[in-house]
Specification:
2 domains; 12 helices; 13 strands; alpha/beta; about 20% strand; four-stranded mixed beta sheet
Length: about 375
């Protein structure tokens, strides 16, 4: 019997700090009118020094887990799609796994630029369909404000911070993620890039002074690429799912530029009421873009069981990806107070266990050193 991958929980988190176009215009040569006309963006959320990719991912994940009404210990795998990880390593997903108390879960990060969440959702779907796992947490989380050149008006007006998450679970019931399309064209890799900090240009005084650790983008070329692949990938995934374009109930595109979204919708002959846009409030949040939009569309009552959704993204790589989803989950009511209290206690207990595990590891290391001293053995590297 075939297995189907259904989205059963969803959640989001955005920093409370909002940077409007008017505020941005006080520090860079731009105007609210210029930004709105060219991008459709009015404001974006910017992380504080206490907010990070992992922290936002955990908040979004907890909300998704509560909506799904699953125990973190039932999660088999955590995938975090991000271009702005907490560290080079360990994976941000491992930090999220620990914070959630998902003790049985494997964890890894996935980097495919703004297409990352779609790549991660397709990966989770394949693992569930293949019988490898049954419950997978998929997160898109970004703190792009950390890698922006705030003096470059071509890029600093575009990006924002945030996180979105979904819980995907296997079922014998038809529906869920029915088709996925993944694509790439590495010949355009230099069109959207952070050149410094990797093995080609390791971090050093020269890379820092030349701002090689910030986003560099060839806007015109990326725009042409995006307007082409958004529509073509959407057509392909709808065809793979067995749908005609008029069967699409809601189109959720990557929120990068309103003109790109309008171009794709026009090519697909989708009326405005079938296209979800929240770009004006968040800007481009990269891998967090589509899950944030999905959560908002659900909250707005635009998605109901039985609806046909197409989600599509594009990004650095160059990459693109699309998924066709037959929605199957009703929006739940508010958490009952007892359940909410249990959730808080569960995460508190997870935090205590993590602290104890770290403490025991330090004690074990200290004891090992003392034993080495007494036995006069050279310390291990």
């Amino acid at each position: 019997m075939p297995r189907y991958a259904h989205i059963i929980g969803w959640g989001k988190y955005v920093p409370p700090n909002i940077l409007t176009n008017e505020a941005l215009a006080k520090t860079v040569d731009t105007t609210d009118e210029w930004i709105r006309e060219r991008t459709g963006i009015a404001q974006r959320h910017i992380a504080s020094s206490k907010e990070s990719t992992a922290m936002m991912a955990v908040h979004a994940a907890r909300e998704a887990i509560e909506v799904a009404d699953v125990n973190p210990s039932d999660i088999d795998l955590v995938i975090v799609a991000t271009a702005t990880p907490e560290y080079m390593f360990p994976a941000t997903a491992c930090l999220v796994q620990d914070a959630l108390g998902a003790s049985r879960a494997g964890a890894f990060d996935l980097e495919a630029g703004c297409s990352g969440f779609m790549y991660a959702l397709a990966t989770a779907t394949g693992m569930i369909r293949g019988g490898m796992y049954n419950t997978i947490l998929v997160i898109g989380a970004e703190t792009l404000s950390r890698i922006i050149d705030w003096n470059d008006r071509a890029t600093c007006v575009l990006f924002g911070d945030g996180a979105g998450a979904v819980v995907v679970r296997g079922s014998d019931e038809p529906g869920g993620v029915l088709a996925s399309i993944l694509g790439s064209d590495g010949s355009g890799g230099e069109l959207l890039i952070v050149p410094g900090g990797g093995s080609k240009h390791p971090t050093g005084p020269d890379t820092v002074l030349s701002k090689m650790h910030t986003i560099k983008m060839s806007g015109r070329e990326v725009y042409r690429f995006a307007t082409r692949v958004m529509a073509s990938a959407s057509r392909q995934v709808a065809e793979q799912a067995g749908w005609s374009l008029d069967k699409i109930d809601l189109f959720i595109p990557h929120q990068a530029n309103v003109r790109i979204i309008d171009s794709a919708a026009k090519a697909l002959k989708l009326p405005p009421e079938k296209v979800f846009v929240n770009l004006d409030r968040y800007g481009n949040t990269s891998a967090a873009s589509i899950p944030l939009a999905l959560c908002e569309a659900i909250d707005a009552g635009k998605i109901k069981p039985g609806d046909h959704l197409v989600m599509v993204g594009f990004g650095a790589g160059l990459t693109w990806a699309a998924c066709a989803v037959q929605w199957s989950t009703a929006k739940p009511g508010a958490l009952a107070p007892p359940r909410a209290a249990v959730s808080r206690l569960r995460y508190l207990w997870s935090g205590i266990k993590s602290i104890v595990a770290r403490a025991l590891r330090h004690v074990d290391a200290a004891v090992s050193k003392l034993i080495d001293i007494f036995e006069r053995k050279p310390p291990e590297e």
